[in-house]
Amino acid sequence: MKTFLLYVATAAAEIVGCYLPYLWLRESRSVWLLAPAALSLALFAWLLTLHPAAAGRVYAAYGGVYVSVALVWLWAVEGVRPTAWDWSGVALALAGMALIAFQPR
C-alpha cells in the first residue's frame, strides 16, 4: 500500500505541475501559476527517486497509476464524470501496473 500511495502522490504532483501551465495557456490565467507548477514538477521528479525499484520499472508501473489519478482529476477538478469505458481502461492500466511493480523478486 505504501508503494501505491507513493505512486499516487507522484502522479498528483505531475498533474498539478502540468495543469497549472494549461490554465495559463488555455484559460488566460496568471503567469504566476508557472511558479507553483515548476515546484510541483520538481516535487514529481524527487518523488520518482523515492521508489525502490529500477528507474525504468518505476516509470513503467507509474504509468498505470497516472492514468487512474488523471481520471479522478478529470472528475474532481474539471467536473467531467468518467465513463464506464474510462474506468475499464483504469482497471487494465492498474492490472498492468501491479504486474510490473509487485512481481516476485
Automatic annotation (TrEMBL):
UniProt superkingdom: Bacteria
Subcellular location: Cell membrane
UniProt keyword list: Cell membrane, Membrane, Transmembrane, Transmembrane helix
SUPFAM superfamilies: Multidrug resistance efflux transporter EmrE
Membrane topology, from the record: Multi-pass membrane protein
Major localization listed first in the record, in broad terms: membrane
Spans through the membrane: 6-25, 32-53, 59-77, 84-102
InterPro entries for this protein: EmrE-like (IPR037185), UPF0060 (IPR003844)
PANTHER family the record matches: UPF0060 MEMBRANE PROTEIN YNFA
Similarity comment text for this entry: Belongs to the UPF0060 family.
Name the record gives this protein: YnfA family protein
Organism ancestry: Bacteria, Pseudomonadati, Pseudomonadota, Betaproteobacteria, Burkholderiales
